[in-house]
Amino acid sequence: MAYIAAVSAHTGFTARFQNDLSTPGLRIPLTASGQLFAEAAELGRDIIWLFTFGERMVDAKKGRPPGPPRLPAGLAPQIPAAGAISDESTKMPDVMKYDASNRRLYVGNGYVKNVDPRVWSYAVSGKHVLTQWFSYRKADRERPIIGERRMPSVLGNIQPDHGRPSIRPSCSMSLTY
Fold first, then answer.
1. What is the rounded CA–CA span in Å between residue 76 and residue 79?
2. Is the confidence at residue 167, as pLDDT, over 60?
3. How far is CA 155 from the centre of its chain?
């Protein structure tokens, strides 16, 4: 499983097999090199540890302690009092942008400071993670239909009408909203 996580998360995989990935059913190439397989599997353990918020693939000796991954103090993104992101339903943000020179992620009228450019540009399987995350949390969640789409689930009608109150000034940024 760790090998699959490493291969499928790699940008080279999505670039090389882009046409094949449009057809349902994921196919993973296997390497004949035992050493390369072991290296990829170790990287995959890191990926699984991160994606499960430290619940799986825990190994403190390899830098994967139990519990949600956290950046060292001072390096973590924070929302200062001046950048407070409103949690009122009438003030749900519709715009998110990144200012690389100030390392700020603007969410509506608020902002998150100390955001590493790698966080902003992070993509999985060709999808920009923050943009995708925000598309489900902004005020206008209408998306254009591109290509064939199956009928949307009625669960899609259950949407938040405000931000979570846990996003307050001077709190550390978490992956939940």
1. 10
2. no
3. 21
The overall longest dimension of the chain from CA atoms, in Å, is 56
Which pLDDT does position 176 carry in this prediction? 40
Residue spans of alpha helices (H) in the chain: 2-9, 11-16, 18-21, 34-51, 117-121, 129-135
Q: Where are the domains of the chain?
A: 2-62, 78-143+160-172
Instruction: Decide: 84 and 91 in contact? Cβ < 8 Å.
Output: no
- Nearest to residue 173, comparing CAs of 103, 58, 70, 46? 70
Q: Residue 101: which residues within 8 A CB-CB, separation 6 or more?
A: none
- What pTM did the predictor assign? 0.53
Q: What angle do CA 52, 57, 58 make, to 5 degrees?
A: 100
* Cβ–Cβ < 8 Å for 140, 32: no
Residue 51 CA to residue 57 CA, distance in Å, equals 10
- Kindly report, residue by residue over 104-129, the tens digit of the pLDDT: 999 988 899 999 998 899 887 778 88
pLDDT at 152: 63
